[in-house]
Design a protein that fits this description.
Blueprint (H helix, E strand, L loop, with lengths): L7 E6 L3 E3 L3 E2 H5 L4 H15 L7 E7 L14 H10 L10 H7 L2 H6 L5 E6 L8 E5 L10 E2 L7 E7 L4 H20 L8 H5 L33 E3 L16 E3 L9 H10 L3 E6 L2 E4 H5 L13
Parallel strand pairs: 1-4, 1-5, 5-8, 6-7
Antiparallel strand pairs: 2-3, 6-8, 9-10, 11-12
Helix pairs in contact: 2-8, 6-8
């Protein structure tokens, strides 16, 4: 399939110097290179979306400082390394999102149509939400909305921790999908709510599992149990190209389908099953990728450039 969406990303990287001019925090701590993680994530989303979504980083902002917490506190390199070693981190932990919006002129950039969404890479205990929607009609997106009536439209800010790998980044996106699909389908009755049907798993719907959710595979019995070998009946095949594949029968599935416990493998498998038909299906846009890339009151532009 050809690329359908090319969302523009404004990238902010908080990777402070620990040894000035020599070592950034990720190097000093032996963590992942945030720029390499970004490219892995772009590649995984392209794969998981059947080649339909190709993110592009159009602006990358090096922000080599510790951002301010909601109470005004900021780490220094020395204090962070010391407190991390003792696991005695500052509380309250949350980052000051309004200050970030002003500091990077995000509403001005948005008004000038410079980006579609924002990705922030930072360190553990930076106080980031995994995803947060910001804008005049923002709603829950795995975090409380940051309602900004002065914004030109809604946008999503992703928070990524470079101590972790790309599997955790895909989990952040998966929770974003869950929030946005629940919002999109909230007005539908139980019989017409395709999202509720898609996200069934055997523990809650015995014998009628579908694809499960980000934490629960079709056969999971607890959070993050992606490696369970016990087979269960699942209708996962009917979603791989819904509605064209809607008649596919249920079959027995196990963790072998999604990587035998590998987080990244499971999340790519799950995302691959999101319907991606460019038409209305049951009153909801059949391309769930479009729904989860929503900005404001409509989908992002299909960009050919």
């Amino acid at each position: 399939m050809p690329v359908r969406y090319r969302p523009r990303v404004l990238l902010i990287v908080h990777d402070p110097w620990v040894v000035p001019g020599t070592q950034r925090l990720h190097q000093y701590m032996g963590w992942n290179d945030p720029y390499a993680l970004a490219q892995q994530y772009i590649a995984d989303i392209l794969l998981a979306s059947h080649g339909l979504v190709e993110y592009r980083i159009v602006t990358a902002l090096d922000a080599p400082w510790f951002p301010a917490k909601i109470d005004g506190f900021s780490y220094t390199s020395d204090s962070f390394v010391r407190q991390w070693a003792a696991r005695a981190m500052h509380h309250p932990d949350g980052v000051d999102y309004d200050r970030r919006v002003e500091q990077f002129d995000l509403l001005g950039r948005l008004a000038r149509d410079e980006f579609d969404e924002v990705w922030v890479f930072s360190f553990p205990y930076a106080g980031e939400y995994e995803s947060r929607m910001i804008g005049p009609s923002a709603y829950w997106c795995n975090a409380p909305p940051l309602v900004r009536p002065d914004a030109a439209r809604n946008f999503v800010m992703m928070g990524f921790n470079y101590e972790r790998d790309v599997g955790c980044m895909l989990e952040n996106f998966g929770h974003r999908v869950e929030s946005m699909m629940m919002h999109a389908c909230a007005h539908l009755g139980a019989d017409a709510n395709l999202w509720k049907e898609f996200s069934r798993y055997d523990q809650t719907s015995p014998g009628a599992a579908a694809c499960g959710n980000v934490h629960f595979a079709p056969n999971s019995t607890r959070d993050y149990e992606w490696g369970r070998t016990q087979p269960v009946w699942s209708t996962c095949d009917r979603w791989i190209d819904y509605p064209n594949s809607a008649a596919a029968p249920a079959r027995l599935v196990t963790a072998a389908e999604w990587g035998n416990g590998d987080m990244r493998g499971h999340h790519i498998w799950w995302l691959k099953h999101l319907p991606h038909t460019p038409a209305l299906v049951g009153g909801v846009w059949g391309d769930w990728w479009q729904t989860c890339l929503l900005l404001g009151d409509g989908p992002i532009t299909r960009r050919a450039d």
